[in-house]
Design a protein that fits this description.
The protein is 32% helix and 19% strand. The protein starts with 6 loop residues before the first strand and ends with a strand. Strand 11 (178-182), helix 4 and strand 12 form a beta-alpha-beta unit. The strands form seven sheets. The protein has a five-stranded mixed β-sheet with strand order 1-7-6-5-21, with no helix packed on it. It has a five-stranded parallel β-sheet with strand order 4-3-2-8-22, with helices on one face. The chain has a five-stranded parallel β-sheet with strand order 10-19-11-12-15, with helices on one face. It has helices at 17-29, 45-48, 80-93, 186-198, 222-230, 232-254, 260-274, 278-283, 301-305, 348-351, 363-369, 400-420, 433-445, 472-480; strands at residues 7-8, 10-13, 33-36, 100-101, 104-112, 117-124, 129-134, 137-139, 146-147, 161-164, 178-182, 201-205, 212-213, 296-297, 310-313, 317-321, 324-327, 332-334, 337-340, 344-345, 355-356, 385-387, 426-428, 487-489. The relative contact order is 0.14. Its EC number is 1.14.13.59.
């Protein structure tokens, strides 16, 4: 352990969209800060997810920072490589490299009430431990980061190649191999078409079918890109239009689920146009209300599923054998390459950080029991701690970066107010949190997310602890004009 007196005003954990946005704001304010990234490069989700077909399902001109519009997006929905290039550009433009420490994994962080300082223990890639201190700790670790590995009997005995979509290596080929994909959520729907093109045979293991809408991913012409570059106001107007369209969809999830019927009809037509076999079509048709699970976008998923060399298995997986997956109907599906498209644990990112606040309370344990926050950013008993893209701040209809920028603004406002008052610490008043969580529960009750299906939006108790059950405009207003009486400074 290297003991040091390295003290920073702010330490940010994670260098994805959240960490970069926080870094840009801190840089502009003149504050001293350090960004810790466990990998050898920035990017977060878009660095780690390199599987074939990986892309964003929010339009690129909306899934980008408002303060850094990009006229050069090549198509409506950007793929992972293009998004990663955008993030790399932002790091260089805003000169964040001197504030970035890669190959730095946070082992644990502990708050000292006497000094108002966090002590953060960091491990390097070569195993050296170092302690940093910070007057504020910002967690930009994201919710879609810790892969879920299903608890399948015999999975550890599988002798072929086993990959989660989040651990895909560049250059990995399935050419001529018998491939199995477990999961038909977002990553499954994206990876299945390119795998179907290359595999000798593809077996898709589906637990619940998804609602899939056309992606309609059109290229931006050179003339359009040139116009965006020459006339930023035109590009901003395009973003505004995209935002308005997506904002309107949000009401369907919370207040007016009936508005989803038109989208549901469009999804059925999309399926019927691509899959002529009525039996297969029925097996690919969801039995739950659209929006209860994440709505997916794809133009090539259904055509891939209709291929003669693709098998859809809908019976539960009974066990995994060294070279096969056996389903409950007794069918033995031989595979030599098994892909886990099983998503992420939204609380898992916090479970392994060992963040300890007042009275020995551990953030990961608190969130595992019930992720109670105030506006998704501050947590009772964790002074000078700020969470970005935390519980109840993700969205199912538009860009989470809108939420992120509001969270960064709130964090900066609270830090500035703490310093203006000459205080050591700022924290949310514990008494305001139960009321906020009751609001989340009340507003979620009538939402489509609690209409009966099982999804990662809900915790083990069936509570919505993932999504924001209101409009983005409301969230922005509440965070950019905070009620300071809801916080203590001391």
């Amino acid at each position: 352990m290297t003991e040091g007196d390295e003290l920073h005003d702010v330490v940010v954990v994670g260098a994805g969209f959240a960490g970069i946005a926080m870094g840009v704001a801190l840089k502009a304010s003149g504050r001293d800060f350090l960004i810790l990234e466990k990998a050898d490069e920035i990017g977060g989700t878009w660095r780690e997810n390199r599987y074939p077909g990986c892309a964003c399902d929010v339009p690129a001109h909306l899934y980008s920072f408002s303060f850094e519009p990009n006229p050069y997006w090549s198509k409506t929905f950007a793929d992972a490589d293009e998004i990663q290039d955008y993030l790399l550009y932002c790091v260089e433009k805003y000169a964040l490299r001197p504030h970035l420490r890669t190959d730095a994994t946070v082992q644990h962080a502990r708050y000292d009430a006497a000094t108002g300082v966090w002590t953060v223990t960091v491990a390097s890639a070569w195993g050296e431990l170092r302690q940093l201190r910070a007057r504020a700790l910002v967690l930009g670790v994201g919710a879609l980061h810790e892969p879920v590995v299903p608890d399948l009997p015999g999975l550890e005995t599988f002798e072929g190649e086993l990959r989660h979509t989040a651990t895909w290596d560049r250059g990995l080929s399935v050419q001529g191999r018998r491939v199995g994909v477990i999961g038909t959520g977002s990553s499954g729907v994206q990876i299945i078409p390119p795998l179907a093109e290359d595999a000798a045979h593809l077996t898709v293991f589906q637990r619940t079918p998804a609602w899939v809408l056309p992606r309609d991913n059109t290229d931006y012409s050179e003339a359009t890109i040139d116009r965006f570059e020459r006339h930023p106001m035109v590009m901003r107007a395009h973003r505004t239009q995209l935002r308005a369209t997506h904002d309107a969809r949000g009401r369907a999830f919370t207040d007016h689920p009936g508005l989803l019927r038109a989208m549901q009809l469009r999804a059925r037509r999309h399926l019927a146009a691509a899959v002529s076999d009525p039996t297969l079509r029925e097996r690919l048709t969801p039995g739950y209300t659209m929006g209860c699970k994440r709505i997916l976008l794809s133009d090539d998923y259904y055509p891939a599923m209709a291929r003669p060399d693709v098998t859809l298995a809908t019976d539960a997986i009974e066990r995994v054998e060294p070279r096969a997956v056996v389903t409950a109907d007794g069918t033995r599906h031989e595979v030599d390459f098994l892909v886990l498209a099983t998503g992420f644990d939204p609380i898992g990112s916090y479970r392994y950080l060992g963040v300890t606040g007042l009275d020995g309370r551990v953030l990961g344990q608190e969130f595992a029991h019930d992720a109670q926050t105030y506006l998704g950013v501050t947590v009772p008993a964790f002074p000078n701690l700020f969470v970005l893209l935390g519980p109840n701040t993700l969205l199912g209809h538009t860009s989470v970066l809108l939420m992120l920028e509001a969270q960064v603004a709130l964090t900066m406002r609270l830090l500035d107010e703490r310093d203006r008052r000459g205080a050591r610490a700022v924290q949310v008043r514990p008494e305001v949190v139960p009321g906020f969580m009751a609001e989340i529960d009340r507003r979620s009750e009538g939402s489509v997310w609690e209409s009966g299906c099982h999804s990662w939006y809900l915790d083990d108790a069936g509570r919505n602890r993932t999504l924001w059950p209101g409009s983005v405009r409301e969230y922005e207003r509440r965070l950019t004009r905070p009620e300071l009486v809801d916080y203590t400074f001391g």
